[in-house]
Amino acid sequence: MAKDPICGMNVDEKTAQHKSEYEGQTYYFCAAGCKRSFDANPAQYAKKG
Asked: What pLDDT shows up at residue 47?
């Protein structure tokens, strides 16, 4: 399980429909809204937690 960097929800990497790449790392999201927030400012959310 991966942790959504926006809301903190656990997301299954195998079934996640929303994901982004940033600085060579894949981030997984519970919903499109969280992905949009991350994509707008990835440096703010990357590598938290």
From this structure: 73
